[in-house]
Amino acid sequence: MKDAFGLPQSLLVLGGTSEIALAAARRLIARRTRTVWLAGRPSPGLDEAAGHLRGLGAEVRTVAFDALDPAGHEDALGKVFAEGDVDLVLLAFGTLGDQARDERDPQAAVRVAQTNYTGAVSAGLVCANALRAQGHGSLVVLSSVAGERARRANFVYGSSKAGLDAFAQGLGDALHGTGVHVMVVRPGFVRTRMTAGLPEAPLATTPEAVAAAVELGLRRRSETVWVPGSLRVVMSALRHLPRGVFRRLPV
């Protein structure tokens, strides 16, 4: 169960090698979390992440999970919930893709959409149903400011995050009153392996800053969290720009 501040004792990470998710796990372990499940494709990286978190004092287990295999989600994630209640599910998997390649290769674009949206819909509903059955818990979904308005530079990725964001908000409405809390996190440019080599955007942030925002959001039971918070105003302005003006911006 959660403590008096709404922080979890047990955590399931979907995307167990995500730098943002692991930063959040480290922060939560330092506070209260004692049991962690890392769900992801079996790999040395997943094992290394689990070992690192064990070194911080948590009981950590891994579970084989593939976002691109929705047919296997209920079985894989059901095994986790069968072990006992889960206080927090952090949906953190995703792929940035390569815009130029994705435009040339529709199948590559489809893979981005299937990972970021279709896989998240499947895994999100499996976890939401399990959380509803146990009568409590939080589902935190890592979205992106890229989903606020599709940009020419990354509209394949942005459109997939727009779908994910809308799905997560609707899911939160559907679960209202059930004891399950859904929180959507919208970071801007985060300095991670996924963004290495890309031009850094204004108001860039770090996995640790996103993790801190996740913790604060859980304490406040927020429904939407922007990281950094100033992006809320920036994206509101960009969202309402006339399309002709938006097209001419260097974004």
Describe this protein's structure:
This protein has 251 residues and is α/β, with parallel strands linked by helices. The protein has nine helices and seven strands. It is globular. The chain starts with 9 loop residues before the first strand and ends with a helix. Keywords: Oxidoreductase. Pfam families: adh_short.
List keywords for this structure.
251 residues, alpha/beta, 9 helices, seven-stranded parallel sheet, single chain
What's the structural blueprint in terms of helices and strands?
Layout: E1 10-14, H1 19-31, E2 35-40, H2 44-54, E3 59-64, H3 73-82, E4 88-91, H4 99-104, H5 106-134, E5 137-142, H6 155-175, E6 180-187, H7 207-220, E7 224-227, H8 231-239, H9 243-248
Parallel strand pairs: 1-2, 1-4, 2-3, 4-5, 5-6, 6-7
Helix pairs in contact: 1-7, 3-5, 5-6
What is the total tally of β strands? 7
Q: List the secondary-structure elements in sequence, H or E.
A: EHEHEHEHHEHEHEHH
Poorly predicted parts = none
Note the main sheet.
7 strands, parallel
Strand content: 15-25%
Average pLDDT rating:
92
**C-alpha Rg, in Å?**
18 Å
Give the termini distance in whole angstroms.
43 Å
The number of helical runs is: 9
Tell me, briefly, the overall form: globular
| Class of secondary structure makeup | alpha/beta
- Side-by-side strand order of the widest sheet: 3-2-1-4-5-6-7
Instruction: Give the helix level as a range of percent.
Output: 40-55%
